[in-house]
Design a protein that fits this description.
The protein is an all-alpha fold and about 130 residues long. The chain has one domain. The protein is built from 6 helices and no strands. The N terminus is likely disordered.
Length: about 130
């Protein structure tokens, strides 16, 4: 009786299948980009391994958060239909975050990155993804 149309629409679109390539790509690109930046910055072996292991574990948790939000229908602004858009914005922000140490810390646009990632997913995923960067 008292269901509103928005909640019924959310439940029918919730649980869409996430492409496995998207999940694998998040993990591999995060690990690969962190390895490449660590290699180019001439970090030691221990530091490179630490950075890559952390990036891979953060990528796995990000995959879980995306799958959970997709299952529950918790994405903001119908973003469950555009998961690739979030992933591309996340990869761009990851690249920007890897290049930011070359600038003075006053020029780091992390507030913009937080807002951007939150707009393309939801609050939980956006804050987590931006914090990982």
């Amino acid at each position: 009786m008292g269901q509103n149309k928005d909640s019924t629409r959310r439940n029918t679109e919730a649980g869409r299948k996430i492409p496995p390539l998207l999940m694998i790509l998040i993990i591999l690109v995060m690990g690969g980009m962190i390895y490449g930046i660590s290699f180019l910055a001439k970090r030691g072996e221990e530091e490179t391994i630490r950075n890559v292991v952390l990036a891979l574990s953060f990528g796995i948790l990000l995959d879980y958060l995306i799958a959970d939000a997709n299952y529950a229908g918790d994405f903001s602004y119908n973003n469950e239909k555009h998961l690739w858009r979030f992933v591309l914005v996340f990869f761009f922000c990851l690249l920007v975050a890897c290049l930011l140490p070359r600038l003075t810390f006053l020029a780091w646009p992390y507030v913009v990155i937080y807002v951007l990632l939150t707009l393309f997913s939801n609050h939980e995923i956006g804050f987590y993804a931006a914090t990982v960067l």
